[in-house]
Write a structure and sequence with these properties.
Length: 187
């Protein structure tokens, strides 16, 4: 009987230790980015109107519950968006630029105009992003923000500071979704 109990407990532990799942999207509990092990901080759904748009996930070196803690880590991090519907590149660009504008003053936006334009060009190079596609926005200290589609790099924005500004789209005072922010911060 004791042996059976240990087998059952082992099975339960293995099941719980596996990948997380949100809206049918399986997310790894741990990933490696630029030689650094990252953990899934949290994940949730970005909805707009009645539509589920994507599953957003945040990977960091050490779990955090607020934006300042995320930004204080001078290690790689990842925001991952797994699309739950087809989106055009322009829809992605508009959402990101609106999110930046909602969290920064006009003067701050003017100061990062070149980086915002780089981001827009990278996103537009994707043309249309289909359901199930994975867009990653990686921060690599000293390199900047690396944007990829389904694992293929689409471009790099060489500014560490810009990635901090970009994180506010999801985790700032005026995030794209309060519920997604809470979920990404482990709430």
């Amino acid at each position: 009987m004791r042996k059976l109990t240990l087998i059952v407990l082992g099975f339960i532990f293995c099941t719980l230790a596996g990948a997380a799942e949100v809206a049918g999207v399986k997310l790894e509990d741990k990933i490696s980015l630029s030689g650094t092990d990252l953990v899934l901080n949290g994940a949730g759904i970005r909805s707009k109107a009645f539509f589920k748009v994507y599953v957003g996930a945040l990977y960091v070196a050490q779990k955090q519950t607020a934006l300042p803690g995320v930004l204080a880590q001078k290690t790689p991090r990842r925001v991952q968006m797994t699309l739950l519907r087809d989106l055009t590149a322009d829809q992605l660009v508009d959402a990101l630029v609106d999110g930046l504008g909602d969290n920064h003053s006009k003067a701050e936006m003017d100061g990062m105009k070149a980086q915002v334009e780089q981001l827009a060009n990278i996103m537009r190079s994707m043309k249309e992003v289909k359901t199930g596609a994975v867009v990653t926005i990686d921060f690599v200290p000293g390199t900047g923000t690396v944007v990829a589609l389904n694992g293929a790099s689409k471009g790099t924005i060489g500014s560490d500071a810009f990635n901090g500004a970009l994180m506010k789209v999801w985790l700032g005072e005026h995030p794209v979704s309060d519920s997604l922010k809470k979920a990404m911060l482990g709430g």
